[in-house]
Write a structure and sequence with these properties.
By secondary structure, the chain is mostly helical. It has six helices and four strands. Helix 5 runs antiparallel to helix 6.
Length: 135
């Protein structure tokens, strides 16, 4: 049998096996549950791609703030945790950059009034991006 020395603890370990000092390090990932599980579906991946393409990959929130940024995230205007029935609702989705997404969530946390005003603004921006379809 061929052995090697563990670079961490120096123990002799049979080739092809993992040293016991490293086996304790293995992370145990729990599979996503509830709403988080929906983000791992093919339906979400396709819908996300459609939303990003409708806005040409640009962030309408940033454009409103006189910035040009690429959208990396598809944001649920009504958070999925609050109402999961709108998870796949195209009218409830808008592409945002990481910076814009953080700004929007900061406004959501400020107050209920701020949250509702921000949601209304996002709905208008999302509607602007989908105008002219089917013409």
């Amino acid at each position: 049998m061929i052995y090697f020395r563990c670079s961490r603890c120096g123990k002799r370990v049979p080739r092809g096996e993992v040293c016991s000092c490293r086996q304790r390090e293995k992370r145990k990932y729990t599979p996503p549950e509830g709403i988080r599980k929906l983000y791992h579906t093919a339906h979400w991946a396709k819908l996300r791609a459609v939303v990003l393409s409708k806005f040409s990959g640009l962030d309408p929130w940033a454009h409103e703030q006189k910035r040009i940024e690429f959208a990396e995230t598809v944001h649920h205007i009504i958070p999925a945790a609050e109402d999961p029935t709108h998870f796949y609702d195209f009218a409830n989705l808008i592409p945002l950059s990481r910076k814009s997404h953080d700004e929007v969530h900061a406004l959501y946390r400020r107050s209920e009034e701020s949250k509702h005003m921000t949601q209304e603004k996002l709905r208008l921006l999302a509607h602007k991006g989908t105008e002219g379809e089917g013409e």
